## 1
Amino acid sequence: MSMKKIHVKKGDTVTVISGNEKGKKGKVLRVDHKQGRVVVENLNMVKKHMRPSQSNPQGGVISVPAPMHSSNVMIICPSCGRPTRIKKELRDGTKIRVCKKCQKAID
C-alpha cells in the first residue's frame, strides 16, 4: 500500500467540509498517511467499550474521536482565519505550505 499525500499536519486547525460534522472546527490529533485519514479532536465521536484496567479501573463506555478521510477537511489559515486550499512553494531551499487566499506561509 502506498503512502498518500495529505495536505494537513498534526496540530493544524481544520474545518469539516462534508458529512455529519459539516462546518465544525477542530485541531488535528493524528494523521494516517497509509489510509489517508485524520483524527480531529471532539469531532466524529464514537462510543468505545473499555474493559477495566489499571489506568481505567471502572471500565465502561467512553467517547473517542474516530478517523475521517482527509478530503473531508479543509485547513484554516492562521493569518487570514479562513478555510483555504494550500500550495507548496520553495522558499529559501525548503518546501513550505502557502495559503491560496492570502499568500502567507502556513508553516
Note: The chain has two domains: 1-76, 82-107.
## 2
Amino acid sequence: MISVIVNREDSRICAIYANGHAGYDEFGRDIICSAVSTLLFTAASALEDICGYDSESFFRISNEGEEDVNLRITVPDIGSDETKDRAQVIMRTCELGLIGIARDYNDSKKKYVEIIHSRTPEV
C-alpha cells in the first residue's frame, strides 16, 4: 500500500509525502503506483515552472526498495502572495487527484492508497 501524508498548517498544504508500493499489479505494470508518481512529479514540475521554485530545494526522491515509491514535496514559503496562492492550487489539485485514486481503486478487499491528513502543531 502507498501511504500518502498531506501535511497542513492551518488550511495551507505545506508538504505531501508518499511512501510504499500499491501492490495492484507487478512492478513496472502497477497503474496505481504510476498514477501516484505522475501526480507528484507533475506537481513538482508545476511548482518549478509556474511558481519559479527550485525543485532541488523542495522535491525529494529516494528508493527504499526497487518497487517502493518514496517522494516528498515540501512547499517553500517564499515568493509573493500570488506565487504562494498558485502553489496552493497546484498542491490542492495534486491532493484531489490522490484522493480520487484512493476512492476509485480501494475496495473492501484491498486498500492500495491510504491518504492521511495531518496538521503541523502550533508552536
Note: The beta strands are 2-9, 12-20, 59-61, 69-74, 113-119.
